[in-house]
Design a protein that fits this description.
- It is rod-shaped, with a radius of gyration of 18 Å.
- The protein has one domain (20-74).
- The two termini are 18 Å apart.
- By secondary structure, the chain is mainly alpha-helical.
- It has helices at residues 3-19, 21-43, 48-74.
Length: 76
């Protein structure tokens, strides 16, 4: 493989990693909200589980985004 091709593929790999960050930041809290809302409706504890799982989803999303950013930085 030529050196120019390797740089192009490295750039595309980093670009694909970094474009997943907005989806991850959105999906974690949404899934947490849905799980918490279901549990709250099931047991009548509104809004405690919704808030708890929303925060857990947000923290998990931030942690995953940091992991992706560090992986993309390491590949440079």
């Amino acid at each position: 493989m030529k050196d120019g091709d390797e740089n192009k593929y490295r750039f595309l790999h980093q670009l694909s990693l970094l474009t997943t960050i907005p989806m991850i930041l959105l999906s974690g809290p949404v899934i947490g909200f849905l799980i918490g809302d279901y549990i709250d409706r099931r047991f009548g504890t509104s809004p405690w589980f919704m808030v708890f799982f929303l925060v857990i989803g947000f923290v998990a999303s931030i942690r995953q985004a940091i992991t992706i950013i560090s992986r993309a930085s390491k590949d440079q």
